[in-house]
Each structure stands twice: as C-alpha cells, then as structure tokens.
Amino acid sequence: MSMLACITLQTAVAQDQTKPHPATLPHPEVEPALKDIHATIAEGPFEADWNSLEKYEIPQWYKDAKFGIFIHWGAYSVPAYGSEWYPRQMYINRDRRGDNFFQHHIDTYGPHKTFGYKDFIPQFKAEKFDAEAWAQLFKDTGARYVIPVAEHHDGFPMYDCAFTRWDASEMGPKRDVIQELSEAVRSEGMKFGVSSHRAFNWMFYVRDESFDNADPQYADLYGRPMPFLFEENAWDYQHNFTPQDEQFKDDWLARSCELVDKYKPDVFWFDFGITPKHGDSTYLNNTYAEHLQKFAAYYYNKTTAKDSDLGIINYKFNAFPESAAVLDKERSKMAEIRKPFWQTDTAVSSSSWGYTQNQRYKSPERLVNDLVDIVSKNGCLLLNVGPRADGTIPEEDQAILKAIGDWLKINGEAIYETTYWKTFGEGPTSVSTGHVSESKDKPFTSEDLRFTTRDNVLYVHGLKWPEDNQITIKTLAQGSDLYPEEINTIQLLGFDKELNWERNASGVTVSLPKDKASKFAYVLKVTQ
Known about the structure:
Blueprint: H1 3-18, H2 30-43, H3 50-53, H4 60-65, E1 67-71, H5 86-89, H6 101-109, H7 131-141, E2 145-151, H8 177-187, E3 191-196, H9 201-204, H10 219-222, H11 246-263, E4 267-270, H12 289-302, E5 312-315, E6 326-330, E7 342-347, H13 364-376, E8 379-385, H14 395-411, E9 425-426, E10 449-454, E11 457-462, E12 470-473, E13 489-492, E14 500-504, E15 507-511, E16 522-527
Parallel strand pairs: 1-2, 1-8, 2-3, 3-4, 4-5, 5-6, 6-7, 7-8
Antiparallel strand pairs: 9-10, 10-11, 11-16, 12-15, 13-16, 14-15
C-alpha cells in the first residue's frame, strides 16, 4: 500500500470514530410512526390537551372487574437474585435492601465488561411457557383482566417491537409473548392490558467505562450512554433525574402507540418514569406532559367506537389529571373512599415483582383482606406474579392464586359488580397510604369490617373471624343515619342456614356458626 493510501485510510478510520454509533441515533421507523400518530390525533374526538382528555369516562367493565393479574417476566428472571431491578443494581456497587447485586454479579458471572445484562438474554429461553395454561390459572383465580409487562426498565420488550433488535421475538424466547398472552387471555373471556416501564430506561443503567453498557453499540438495549450516567451520583435517580430529551420521548411515544396498534390493550399501565420528579411533579409542570397528552389522545381515539370500550390508562403520582385517566398506587392503599375510581398494584411477594430465589410471600388471607379493603374504597386490585425464566409460574404463586380463587367462588358476589357504600367500614385498623408503604400495615382484627353494595343489598365483610363467633355491626344500629331502613334478612355467604341476629341502639349483633363458611374474610348479606 502506498504511503498516501495508508494516510487516507488512517484519516477515514479517525473520522469514523468521531461519528455517532448508529445504535445511538433515532431509529428510522420512529419518524414515519410519529406522522401516523399525529394524523390519528388530528382525527379526534380527543385532542392532545388536558381539557379535551378530561372528558374521558372510565368503562363500566373496569369498575365492575375489581381484580386483575399483573405479570413481571423478563430476562431479569435468569439471575433470579434480589429483585427485578437486577439489571440496574448489578452495575451499582451499593447495597439495595440488604443485597449487593454488584458483588454478587462479579462472584457469579465475572466482570461486567465480559458478562453484562445483555448476556442473560440468550439464557432466557422460556422453553416451558404456555400462555393458555397461564390464562386458565388466572381465570380460575377469579381475575377479570390480565396485564403482562410489555417492556420493563431494562429495555427488552417482551413483544415484536419494530424499534429495536433487542426484543423477545428476535432474542431469548424468540416468541411474541404479548401476542400469545393476548390471545389466550381473551379466549378465557378476560380483558387484556399491557404495561410500559420504558420511560425509566433513560436513567436505569449507571455507566462506567469498565462496563459493557458504556459501549455505544448496545445503546438500543441499555439506552444511550449519556454523560450524566457516568457521574458518581448517577445511582441516586430520585434526586438526580435528568429529564428525558426529545429523541427518547419520541421513541417512547412510537413504542407505546405500537403496543396499542398491535395488541389493542383494554388497559395501558405506566410506571413512574413518566414523571421525572415523581411525587413533586404535576401534569401542569411535568416535562413529559406533551408526550403523555399525545399518547392519551391517540389511545382514546383508537378505542373510540360504537362496538368497543375506551381504553384505560393507569398512571402514578400526578402525571395525569384525575379525570383523564385512572390513578394507580404501588404497594399502597387509600384511607377513605376515593370517588374517582382507582387501583392498587401489589404482588404476592413482598420482596420482588419478578421471580427470585427465596421470595418473601404474603399470605392469601392478607391479600384477600387487601382486596376487600380496596374495593370498599372504590378501587380495584392488580396482583402480580413473577414467572421463572423457563416460563413456569412458581408453585407458591399458584397456591396463593388458587386460595384467592376459592374465596372468590364463595364471596365473589360481594366483590364483582359492586360499588362503595356510604362509608367504607368500621374498626380500629388503618392502612398505609404513602408510595410503597404497605410494609407498615398491621393485620386486621375481628372488629374491622368493610362494606360494599349492589342492588339495594349491603355486604358486610368481616376481615377476621371473631373468636366468640359473634360480631356487632355498629354502623347498622337502630336509628342509624347511614342505614335507616328496616333489615329483612342477614345471610352468611357460603352458609345455607339461618343466622340469629338482633338489632338495637348499639348495632346489629350476629351469631356466626362455629365452623367458618370460607377461609379468610367472611361476608354477611344484608337485605331490606
């Protein structure tokens, strides 16, 4: 090679190194997708502004359903360590809730440069995944809707995504998990939704030059290696959340609307990343607001038809006006009745959403009581399970779901298609209301009662069976302003014999049978 040719080649290589890697540039499919999105918004009837979106009305099926299943399943189920935040914490040399994921990763898999999160994906094979079996289990549990995670913070969609090569249809399982679940769930008569946690992918992966995630060629999985992600305090996203830029938000919008088009979800659940300042942000000052408005207008316009229900958006904190979508509280509840309908999302495990070894499981009794408490306050419960990497749902998860299903078979009429009453209940035990605060909850007592109603029937839920087999409902006392009507009958669901009861100025005292009519909470059906 001549000296001139050699110099020319070296110059070309140097220039190439200064160019952005293609994986860091906007995906070529995003721009045409945005054009289609804007065209759909222009068609109406909903416009991409809060005044228009506040005309939204929640479909009745959702208010009636009360109980749904959430599914956290992804490549994070391969390491099965700590929690579904393994992809983030494996790059942070700090303890999280007693576990040092960083050191565990090095000890188990080696340095991050040679074995990063991306390297778990080939091991995520889902070889035993059976969507129909899952759907049958959820149906038997008594769920009325099912919401799998379509994309978690890790940036690995569980569906056939047009905007990245890193998805479950091309890698790992090499199956469109969301499509399979949508068909199976709907064939069982349940509603189907999806969740998107993608907005936090922007800040999810802390970077270091010694990590694989610093390499721009993997930006379409880990996100672009932005300078702020290399800073010493990058792990502290709650105090150092750099707002997403337009490239990221446009990509997010294209992906979100693709989910609407491909799977026609009845519910679309969003995690906290759509509010960079979390609890301090409102829909009026949120830097994500414009894109949220566009998505909502697109989704609502796509589901506006005479033969279908409007889609439902679940949001956290103050990302939406309360009448434009449905508030979701994570591992938390309401202290009183909230008249705008709302939802709690929690899990059968108190330690993780995704599958891990050594899960700390909740009891079915606690979860049934949570369901009752939430429904009495005009809410619904979205309960999560975490399947293993091979696609099987752990036996412990299944046993919990079966126990809840058995309870609902007896007492479901006091849950489904009911609404809140004049007061949510009575008794000494309060519940946690702050974000992710359920660990502070104390067990309910036999004095804790909750009310639901339907067709002039009042259901009284006792959250713990009294030791003396007797309960006094103070709210129903003779002359009560809340229940001035005469009581005709009181029945115990699941018990086919008459009960002895007496009403006076102190309340209605009911003598219960010696044997429980059902496990966990019991329900008294009060008719006029």
